[in-house]
Amino acid sequence: MTESFTPPPAAGCRDTPVLKERGQREVFCGLTGIIWLHRKMQDAFFLVVGSRTCAHLLQSAAGVMIFAEPRFGTAILEEGDLAGLADAQEELEREVERLLDRRPDIRQLFLVGSCPSEVIKLDLSRAAERLTQRHAPRVRVLNYSGSGIETTFTEGEDACLASMVPVLPETDRRQLMLVGALPDVVEDQALDLLEKLGVGPVTVLPAARASDQVAVGPNTVVALTQPFLGETLSALERRGARHLAAPFPFGEEGTTAWLRAVAQEFGVSEERLEEVTAAPRARARRAVAQAAETLNRRSLFFFPDSQLEIPLARFLTRECGMEAVEVGAPYINKQVVAPDLDLLAEGPVISEGQDVDLQLDRCRAARPDLTVCGLGLANPLEAEGLTTKWAIELVFTPVHFYEQAGDLAGLFSRPIRRHDLLKLEAAE
């Protein structure tokens, strides 16, 4: 296993002082997580309690009419509801009754607040309790906030999964729990690798259906697949589960380190790990190497968006040869990302939160070869001659584990390659 081994840096970024900024932010709100969560949980329905603005957001994010997709919708609050002039609780419960009568296939109903309760004049947690009592055991009703005031882009998934943890059954069996919504093809690859290693039993949160046997207890070992699930992890730890710290499975190195942590926890030998991973590791190295030809020695600047930034910076610097100037994340939970920080060589600014004007000033001064940012910043920066990558694609595209390593590197190499070609054409 030494042919592609890159030693850890002499000094990582775990203890690097973090530049903490609190100002104007440029991120999507947590409601957008519904777009991938409703595809993952096959018998769930997400009812957003909010304004017409929220309905338009989901319509735009999904690229369809709001009721064209069968498992999410919006209960629109009118001016009278927002002013507290109507009995919105009764109206909401009537809407839920009509929804469940019309859709008997629903087994999990999420009431998703688009604003804090003091704004929408509704206590959705109490509404969920009453509706659960009325419709149990056929339907489980939960609630969480996707408010852009309270959450950023990927925190919608974190809030959703955290709301599920208190109602999971108790178990004493020793098990591995994978936590994080992955595309089905990626999840299948992960489960196949774990099966070949002999690790089991393995459960997944979120499960595809409410009837799937997902339980938690003191012998549950949690392996996160997404770095933005800090609240979910805390909720699982309160139920007695134990976190398995590891780099995240992005690229060949990250995937191998993640699998090695699981293998060591469950007594799998290094020889067995090598036997199972040798072929997919080689494929991943070859695929990444093609993109790395374009990325090597290019500078990189991350605006905070998805909380994927630190693991991705580790992947891009160590496996693709990029040089990170700044790595910004909306929140940094060192319990979760410390293993990736250890592998990220000292040098870049590590920033948490955002004051967008100050960060734009630093980005313009650095003139990086590639800037990873949200949609709202990409076009203005492109107009200034900077090459950008939309951060949102990193959440919607399969990027985890060995077979997606080349695709992940390609997401970053294509904008640079396009910029180089346009520059060459202009010179001619």
Automatic annotation (TrEMBL):
GO biological process: light-independent bacteriochlorophyll biosynthetic process; photosynthesis, dark reaction
Cofactor dependence: [4Fe-4S] cluster
Binding residues for [4Fe-4S] cluster: C29, C54, C115
Cofactor binding: number and manner: Binds 1 [4Fe-4S] cluster per heterodimer. The cluster is bound at the heterodimer interface by residues from both subunits.
Catalytic activity from the UniProt record: chlorophyllide a + oxidized 2[4Fe-4S]-[ferredoxin] + 2 ADP + 2 phosphate = protochlorophyllide a + reduced 2[4Fe-4S]-[ferredoxin] + 2 ATP + 2 H2O
Family membership: Belongs to the BchN/ChlN family.
Protein name: Light-independent protochlorophyllide reductase subunit N
